[in-house]
Amino acid sequence: MRSAAFVRSHAMQLIQRNPQLSAYLVADDVVDHRHPLVRETAARLAAGTHDAYTYAEAAYTFVRDEITHSQDSGDLAVTWRASDVLARGTGICCAKSHALAALLRAEGIPAAFCYQRLADDDGSRPFVHGLVALRLPGSDLWARVDARGNKPGVDARFSLDEERLAWRARPEFSEVDYPVLYDVPHEAVLRALKTAPDRPSLWPIYPTEL
């Protein structure tokens, strides 16, 4: 896995796969924001905020800091449904993105799934990294955020002006910032998460590119 390194990612043009903004508010089997636990968590976070921006920041910080990245913590469970990620308190980057999207959509903030293709420091072992893009009500701009969880050397932050992601894509190692904003998680990622019985079984079937 790529080692920790803080960078600011460059701005990029993001493209909605679904032209209907309402699609990025939908509840489904993965982003189950009508689930009682998701609603309860969203209400608790909203109680300490006063507008959409501060709520979005609170939801982001909660998922980044309180939901552990299972690779970092050593948890062998594979979660994929937003309510299960919250209940278990762990998940890989894409699973954490599902939880963050659910919390944002629960409070009427459009949330999209977007991805990077990253690799180890030497360019080996590529993997798909999951992010969330959000669009505050009244804005026509999407902003990507990375809630995978910080660790020594990784300092991702909530920022809608200048991206503060965990890692920058390095073209020299065939790393990619995928520009597409998905209203539902990418099928290749979701299929791997649903299939793997545990995290060691996940990595051999996890997509290396989209």
UniProtKB/TrEMBL annotation:
Pfam families: Transglut_core
Transglutaminase-like domain: residues covered: 40-147
Leader sequence residues: none
InterPro entries: Papain-like_cys_pep_sf, Transglutaminase-like
PANTHER family: BLR5614 PROTEIN-RELATED, CONSERVED INTEGRAL MEMBRANE PROTEIN
The protein's name in its UniProt record: Transglutaminase-like domain-containing protein
Organism: Streptomyces hundungensis
Lineage: Bacteria, Bacillati, Actinomycetota, Actinomycetes, Kitasatosporales
